[in-house]
Amino acid sequence: WALAGCLREMNAVHSIQIVYDFDYTIIDANSDTWFLQELAPDLHETVAEDHKRFSGWTEYVDDALDRLHTDRGLGSNEVLASLEQISIEPEMKQSILHAKAAGHELRILSDANTVFIHTILARNGMQDVFSTITTNPARIEDGRVRVTRFDTSADHGCSLCPANLCKGGVVGTWAGYDRTYYVGDGWGDLCPILKLTSSDVAFVRRGKTLARYLNQKAEHTTKATVVYWNDARELQSKLLKFI
């Protein structure tokens, strides 16, 4: 009865925004390395070591795209065609569309990039679902995809987040909602979840980096209700109870 009462109270008429990470959340893959897996398996095998040579992950992805184009003649057409192979699972799509139909504000906040995300959403018929897609900007230039940092400042002031994007800072600008539901899996999702209030809900994917660190230290504790999920089907079942 206590849980039922809590859900009834949360399901009352409120303005709700739902913020989704993208990789391993909306899609069950890492779009930043998928194109290497498909087009250059040898480079994919060395990602863990190769990216350490760069000042940040975004710079590594841009360099990998350049090497594909310069050294192997594989440009934007081939990269985008590989990304179009990624399907959004039916349960994930259904839960997102249900939330949209309920009138909630849907946003993507991702460390991927605009070209990759828009390509995958369009391939899955979801290009018009989200009101905001905040991520690293990308463009097609000279036959290849170019990726740059979302945050180009010398220091965004957050010790938790990578230099290219502080997700917590972005979420902090999206004010005016009674509740925020945040759905994510990675280290970059820790900062925004720590900024949630007791009225909010964090949907945390089990078995990923975020689940290993959230609420394990005093400084990594959130006031939000935490709901864990394993896959799109379980997320659908749990998310729909709150919308």
Helices and strands in order, then pairings?
Layout lengths: L1 H9 L5 E5 L10 H9 L1 H4 L2 H4 L6 H16 L3 H8 L6 H12 L3 E9 H10 L8 E5 L1 E4 L2 E4 L19 H7 L5 E6 L5 H5 L6 E5 L3 H5 L11 E5 L2 H8 L4
3D architecture notes:
This protein has 243 residues and is α/β, with parallel strands linked by helices. The longest helix is centred in the first third of the chain and has 16 residues, at 57-72. The strands form two sheets. It has a six-stranded parallel sheet with strand order 3-2-1-6-7-8, sandwiched between helices. A two-stranded antiparallel ribbon has the order 4-5. It is globular. It contains twelve helices and eight strands. The chain has helices spanning 2-10, 31-39, 41-44, 47-50, 57-72, 76-83, 90-101, 114-123, 167-173, 190-194, 209-213, 232-239; strands at 16-20, 105-113, 132-136, 138-141, 144-147, 179-184, 201-205, 225-229.
In short:
The protein is of the alpha/beta class.
Q: Which short descriptors sum up this protein?
A:
18% strand, alpha/beta, two-stranded antiparallel ribbon, 243 residues, six-stranded parallel beta sheet
